[in-house]
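ping. complex inputs:
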Amino acid sequence: MSETVRVVVDVMGGDNAPIEPVKGAVEALMEREDIQVFLAGQKEVIERELEKYPSCPRERLEIVSATEVIETAEPPVMAIRKKKDSSIVVGLNMVKRQEADAFVSSGSTGAVLVGGQVLVGRSKGVQRPPLAPLIPTKDGVALLVDCGANVDARASHLVQFAKMGSIYMEHVVGIKNPRVAIVNNGAEEEKGNALVKETFPLLKACKGINFIGSIEARDIPAGYADVIVCEAFVGNVILKLYEGLGSTLISKVKHGMMTNLRSKIGALLVKPALKETLKAFDASEHGGAPLLGLKGLVVKTHGSASAVEIKHAIFQCAQFKQQKINEKIEKYINEQDTEEVDRKE
Amino acid sequence: MSETVRVVVDVMGGDNAPIEPVKGAVEALMEREDIQVFLAGQKEVIERELEKYPSCPRERLEIVSATEVIETAEPPVMAIRKKKDSSIVVGLNMVKRQEADAFVSSGSTGAVLVGGQVLVGRSKGVQRPPLAPLIPTKDGVALLVDCGANVDARASHLVQFAKMGSIYMEHVVGIKNPRVAIVNNGAEEEKGNALVKETFPLLKACKGINFIGSIEARDIPAGYADVIVCEAFVGNVILKLYEGLGSTLISKVKHGMMTNLRSKIGALLVKPALKETLKAFDASEHGGAPLLGLKGLVVKTHGSASAVEIKHAIFQCAQFKQQKINEKIEKYINEQDTEEVDRKE
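pong. complex structure:
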């Protein structure tokens, strides 16, 4: 059997806490035996939720008390510093002390990002840990790296994002020799802002990644690349526009179907098939976004994450640990950096 | 009757040249009497196309000979310099010499952008002329400014974009007191990259615009703002992702409807109503993108522009001229700039 992976789940974070995080954790435990879960949060709340699942394998589940809750609106740095007994700080500290392998939270993105860096800490050689969600494409998914806190990142950071993203896509998502592209305002090599122009030749020269050049935003949903590299401001725009445009278009489609009696009847017939197809284009089906390059694993799920998303995020953690992603990242980042220094000298 | 507006239409540019540009121009002439059109391109090609429209009011139409064609792949600066007898250079020079009020082209975006600045020239006080397409929102449109060549723009440029965009939305599109927002990676005032952090207080202090703060990309399709301010790299990402995500999602919907017999029958019933709704979300229905802040008007339509889009772009030019947008922009830009300097002193 595979190595057991220990995951802390933040039970207090997100819009659907505590119900969905607890449900997702229980379902993960029931589906796979190589998982052990710690539920971090208010003890009595968790106990009450767990009563719903009498067949839950309690021997692989432990409650970890955390009395405080970090709200989404709180300034992250201050929250992490002050609320020592919050589920986020307690969970991240367990990863830091290696009592757990991974931490999954639907809570404050800012607090998870800051806490991940400050409490868990960066792997040796990693300059900036990026947040890397999977976004749906026409026939699969792509990793968008970075959507985190590193706005105005430097070229060397983007090169590391490309490396870490490649490892993740290959070994966690299972895409062989993933195609890496940098987001640009045109397909030609001379296009780009100052950052892209500086980064492009570095990526081209980078060993061990399959760099295919620039990608225009238009070609992201079509699935032209597997690892989409950009700095966090642009990554945020892409991720948020995906969500916003998707929901606006789908509401337009629904509205269009309700225009007249003929279309209403058609809508009834079409609905089940359509639902199935659009589900594949729903970001929440693809688990959470890992914060790459830390000494442990931190995964941020959507604020509105359902039990299914939490469960997938836990499975993602198992894959991450069993595939030794952190060891691979640390080895690759430091190997390559040395080579690059050598070449310059 | 309204003042006659003289528009040069590039007959050689775009995927559908010369058929659609000629058709669009003829339809514009037949629909409105206050429009005069110059068709720039190869004379015999245009004559042949015009034979299709015997009832075209030829007294308001003139052919302007231009023997060369600038291809989309050509480096823009070189193309503008070398191909003096191309439809783009000939058309822009007519605007420069005030023989025409406006130029409409579906040809090379780069050549139109460069040519507009170099040949037509900027209005007094305008630092960078932005390209400002209208993008569809849930119940209307928003102006995305800038999607042009000004990547890595400065804060002062963005402030001018906001001012010019406001005037355009109010007087050409007809939205009273348009809401102006800056694209940001979060709604809070402390969010943003260096450029946004520098621009935000300037926009807040700017008189004469209705600045409502930051907008996350998620809220753009929902229609939370009328003028969306960003530098061109981000603008390009937004515009291209709109196109790409829209077409991917619609192909997903179509595919979903064809899953089984039941859904296929439903699709037949739903199709007409759905087509109508999705048409409203099609960028090409909203004419072309003006290059704001020039001494004349230059409008870039999609490379794949149809006659309808060309026609709408010509109407846009008429509205622009009759509403004296350039005069309004020049007055506002220079007034405000003086005030700002005064305040600093």
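Chain B has a mean pLDDT of 91.
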